[in-house]
Amino acid sequence: MKRLRFADNSSTAGFTILEVLVVMIIVGVLMSIAAPDWIAYLNNRRVTTVRDEVKQVLEEAQNRARSERQSKTVTINIADPLPTLSISSTASTASAGDQRVLGGEGIREEMIALSTPGGSNTLTFDYQGLVDDSATLPFIIEVAPGNIGGKKRCVIVATILGSITTGDENECNTSGWQ
Predict the structure, then answer these.
(1) Taking the mean position of all CA atoms in its chain, how far away is CA 73?
(2) H/E element holding 125?
(3) Considering the domain 17-177, what is its CATH architecture?
(4) Which of 3, 7, 32, 81 is most buried (CB neighbours < 10 A)?
């Protein structure tokens, strides 16, 4: 008569606790190395996105001034915790419909800071799309990460004709455009 053999319960399938811990430590070290670069990359993308949107708003205001044959004023709302621009027919009548929050859904309060080193927060395009004579040129709008530091970007209105360009870091200095 054949004896019944029971299966050997000492299975070698799976991972030991030590192997799992070693893998988790290696993954943790790799994540701690990669995380700061990833965060810096995301912040640079946000700043670049907002800068591009600032340029689009300025170009839209300039085009609307030409097409409607009416002066348009762009106001940079520096005091707002979110980066905001508004377009209006005069500096004092910006309506809520013309106000733009820049950066989309991914931007939270104080994540991006707008500034104008020249002191003026408004730029007016006349009925021909030219920059108003009273504007101090170059008119620079700086876009920088909020409280965390990082590379700043800028939009520069360099000439009375309304030439709008973008710049990075050193190109944003007002002294370089004098």
Answers:
(1) 22
(2) strand 122-125
(3) 3-Layer(bab) Sandwich (3.55)
(4) 81
